[in-house]
Amino acid sequence: MARPGLTDERSRGTATMSRTELLADGGNERRRRRLRRWLTITLFLLPALVLFMLLVLAPIVIAGYASFFKWNGLGGPPTDYVGLDNFRTLLSDEVFHQDLWHAVVLVGLSLVVQLPLALGIALLLNQRFRGRAVFRVVFFAPYVLSEVIAGVLFTILFDPETGVKFAQGWLADPNTVLYALFIVLTWKYFGFHMIIYLAGRQNVPQELLDAAATDGATGWQQFRHVTLPLLGPTIRISVFLSIIGVIQLFDMVWVLTTGGPVHGSETLAVTMFNFGFKRFQVGYASAISMSMFVISLVFALIYQRFVMRRDVQGAITVMGNQG
Amino acid sequence: MLSLTRRSVALGAAAMLALAGCGGGGGDKGGSSGGGGGAKKVTIEWWHIQNTVPLRPVWDQIAKQYMAQHPNVTIKIQPIENEAFKAKLTTTTQSGKAPDLFQTWGGGVLKQQADAGLVKDLTQDVQPWIGNLQQIALKPYTIDGKLYGLPFDNGMVGFWYNKKLFKQAGIDTPPTTWTGLLDDVKKLKSAGVTPIAVAGKAKWPEMYYWSYLALRIGGANVFANANNDFSGPAFVQAGQKLKELADLQPFQKGYLGADYDTPNGQAATVGLSKAAMELMGQWAPSVEEAQSNKKLGDDLGFFPFPTVEGGKGQITDAFGGGNGFAVGKDAPPQTIDFLKYFLSVQSQQMAAATGAILPTAKGAETALKDPRALEVLKTVSGASAFQLYLDQAYAPAVGQEVNDQVSALVAGKASPQQVAEAITKTAKSQ
Asked: Alpha helices, DSSP H only, in A131-267?
């Protein structure tokens, strides 16, 4: 910080100036400098900012605008203003309620089954043993596979006639389809969470575990009181990604079932697509997308504010508190 | 500093080049849209959904022949898969643009496009030669007395059945009444044969049953007279009759997850003789063959949808539709000339020879090799009345609601009454 010192020296040298003049001069200088700094920041941010506005903010604003209209998306901008009608219809729509319920079920199952599974395998794969690298690759491989390919593979596995014996026709039954979908999602995404956990586990210092062992901690106690707390930030981010992923789930469902049978596996995004691109009710579809946006945003803010508070110091939601 | 300058010069040059490129492109486009005829170069952008064999190469060939005769015309062909086409067209039309020549099924969607001013009114332009086409096929493309599209394919829905499997169950002649059909379903079941294949994932094949039942019960004009009210007795009874059928569990295992034209879908199930019949349009034999790699040949027969006892409809009232092309509002005038060439007897014969369409040009039917195709064509051209597929006759929202509701009914998740009410609600909100 050489510059503040410079100012000091100069102000001392101009002792004849009145106090107010002095202050004004220093203020001007500071303001000019701050302006230049902001100018630099703006200039460097501009390309990213323009793209962000064009590709992220503008579509959100347009969708928000369209959600107040009855609009089939054809021939120019919407004109038939209906106020909150789209949202009213949405809130009373049974399919929308089902979508929300499906999201709750999938999130619940993910938290109870998928993430613990990923964590367990990550801890196993952290042990030293022959062929460890091979297993890591094998478990991570499904994540690299394209959604469509994975989906088609599983439609073959679940085929009512020729599929795997015990799983035949699971996708064709409204009562089992959601769980079949969850199996596919787990298979596809647990590798991703596993890799995050593995990276997190490798950041846990060996000394701490050694120290705990010296103090007589059992394997379970070491995990419970050393590894798990230190994995906290990793687990919190993986839970976050998992939930956001469920809220926006589309492609896998589309390939597997297109949301059927009888809306049995429909998600918010699938409903939105159906209304936007099959029923041409673009205004209503925009209302669905706005509700998805609001749900994601509210969840993200609350989660960051209360759960990931210490992990994301400096992020928007906590900036005020940190001063 | 020097290097910086040099770099900016290079950058500037690149930018100029890019701009020049854009300018060139813009110039071409301007030429195409402003082309009034003569030797001016024009480009016709053509989106079609016949993206696989057998029709794709035929379309390519017809376009090539036309371009050879008209060197100033370039036809840019974009074959797009059905669902992808709908999504792509939606995004394009949102900006107020439309391709020069694109797939249409007529009905409600075409009406929306016409209302939005996206498609050209063809009535005057095609006046001199429209008589070459079958008149009944033009009905779905005529909106408020104006013609907004032209069909290259028109047919109807009926039962395609496996004669061998019917014989195996002791059925000699196909049913002509609904009760007869239910009896035959029972006979097939007790003979260990899956009576019907249906695509519960695709939903629209289920809609055919409900639509036909409503037509047979309420008469040929039941949909035309419905006036967005589908809660009348004809529609509720149609649901009840369909439920009678569904309660017999006549469909293949896992039908709720089955698609139409996939290797384990509805068409393949019939093609592989795993089910005795399907209710499907004129394209059924070719899709069965393509998806199962087997030829049923003479074992495959066609019978019209049976009448319902006490209903007002006749067995000759047809339910169906086809495929056509609409012309975008900014399309060059050559587009209509190409459409004329495309619908000439010669071109239509080439397409008909593949067996994938039923031609609409009078005289092109001689190219049909399949006697069953000819039978369907004769039935539809001699039909006492014609109703377009519901998911195309109505605005897309209503059509999809019909599909969704009928699918729920077949799955036992909605009552005939609920189905009728839900469709009415959607129709009234449009």
From this structure: 132-144, 147-157, 177-202, 206-214, 219-222, 228-247, 251-256
* Tokens of residue B375, six digits: 């039978």
Predicted pLDDT of residue B224: 84
B257 with A261: Cβ contact below 8 A: yes
CA distance B94 to chain A (A): 5
What number is the average pLDDT over the span B213-237? 92
For residues A109 and A184, give the distance between their C-alpha atoms in angstroms, rounded to a whole number: 12
Whether the bond between A261 and the residue before it is cis, its omega within 30 degrees of 0, is: yes
C-alpha dihedral sign at B406, B410, B413, B416: positive
Residues A20-33 have pLDDT tens digits of 555 556 678 888 99
Nearest to A278 among B200, B400, B407 (CB): B400
Regarding pTM above 0.90, the answer is no
Helix ranges, B249-293 (H): 266-271, 284-292
Task: Tell me, yes or no, if B11 comes closer than 8 A to chain A by beta carbon.
Answer: no
The ipTM estimated for the assembled molecules is: 0.77
Size of interface A-B (CB pairs under 8 A): 97
pLDDT at A64 over 60: yes
The per-residue pLDDT for range B103-148, each reduced to its tens digit, is 999 998 899 899 999 999 999 999 999 999 988 889 899 999 999 9
- What type of residue is B400? Q
A271: Cβ–Cβ under 8 A, 6 or more apart, which residues? A95, A96, A99, A259, A288
Set of chain A residues whose Cβ sits within 8 Å of the Cβ of B115 = 74-75
Residue A235 C-beta-side C-alpha neighbours within 13 Å: 19
Q: Note whether B391 contacts A: Cβ–Cβ < 8 A.
A: no
- Nearest CA to B150 out of B343, B354, B379 is that of B343
